[in-house]
Amino acid sequence: MKNAELTTELLAIIVKHIPSAVAVLNQDMHRLYANERWSQLHDLSEISPTEDFFSKLPPALKADCERCLDHRTIVCGMEKDGKKAYCLTWEIIPWNTSSDEIGGLVIFIDDRTDRKRSDEKIYEMVNKLSQSNQALEEFAFVCSHELREPLRTIANFFHLIEKHNANTMDATTQEYLGFIKKSIHHMETLINDLIEHSIINSNKNNFTSKVVCINDIIDNVRDILSAKIIETGATLEYGKLPCIYGERAQLVQLFQNLIGNSLKFRSTHPPRIKITAEQKGDFWQFALADNGIGIEKLYHKKIFLMFERLHSKEKYEGSGIGLALCEKIVKNHGGEIYIQSNTENGCTVYFTLPSTSPNKTSQKQE
């Protein structure tokens, strides 16, 4: 008897303090019990035990109660009301008498109104942010295109001035014109990279139907960078790499930027670049390692920001957008990118791309 009393007492405490509204009904749909949460729940708080409890329930809940009583099933549902602005979810369980007959129902109701409103606000904020980002990308794209024409005019007149005064310029004038020429070249590079960044950022298609072989991508990039590879005496080492789901043009840009950085930021030794891949779940993790000058740990995240430069333009050419482009491309494919590096052992860039099927890698030297 004491155990039964203890069990009843524990159940009463649990029902009283659970976040759900709980009510126990008999077969006639009269309320036998309701916890405090039930009495606090919107308009249901106005229903007293002596009133016609069932008729004042939300229509969908009433229908589920009747169905549950007939078929001895657990029913879940949702009621939304635009005027009263509430959102309820419920679960209904029939309870049996000692003779194993249905004695009534136990109803559990969760009020998800606040959660629903929060979700709607978050969705609205995300939608506004997305629209704002799209507008900024379009603005950058248009501005970059509009800047091309005046820059082309400046470059044309610069060449005319240089040609017209080729035999009369003193050393100081030649030096000044050299500064202008470098600035024009830098501006051209910056505008082209901005346009490329806008295109890549707006091209977030689903690539799951496009299979691309990474070996073909690297062979293509090696041809593009062949002159620089020969000039620097670089060694590009990679084995049988996997095929992945992706967009070919973006992946060429990705590997071209990464390999190009290894060639650019080389040490006093000839560049040695090694590319490997390891399957991790639904993705392949690629590693591109070099023996270059490396990057201090302080800048490992900072280098993926647009226009971030760790070195002067005089020492290393570039716009400071290359790695930002790489991050955009990898994220467009649902992956992540990060680096491990120090100033003594070069740099390794890790990034993930979606796999098509299990593959094994081997080693090959080019």
List the helices and strands and how they pair.
Blueprint: H1 2-17, E1 21-26, E2 31-34, H2 36-40, H3 59-71, E3 75-81, E4 86-96, E5 102-111, H4 113-164, H5 171-202, E6 211-213, H6 214-224, H7 226-232, E7 235-238, E8 243-245, H8 248-264, E9 272-280, E10 283-289, H9 322-332, E11 337-341, E12 347-354
Parallel strand pairs: 7-9
Antiparallel strand pairs: 1-2, 1-5, 3-4, 4-5, 6-8, 9-10, 10-12, 11-12
Helix pairs in contact: 4-5, 5-9, 6-8, 8-9
Secondary structure: helix percent? 40-55%
Count of DSSP H/I helices: 9
* Biggest β-sheet: strands ordered side by side in the sheet: 2-1-5-4-3
Task: Please indicate the percent range of residues in DSSP E strands (runs of 2 or more).
Answer: 15-25%
* Overall outline: elongated
The computed structural class is: alpha+beta
Low-confidence stretches: 358-366
H/E element order: HEEHHEEEHHEHHEEHEEHEE
- Describe the largest sheet: 5 strands, antiparallel
Question: What is the gyration radius calculated from CA atoms?
Answer: 34 Å
- How many strands in all? 12
- Average pLDDT for all residues: 76
- Termini gap: 84 Å
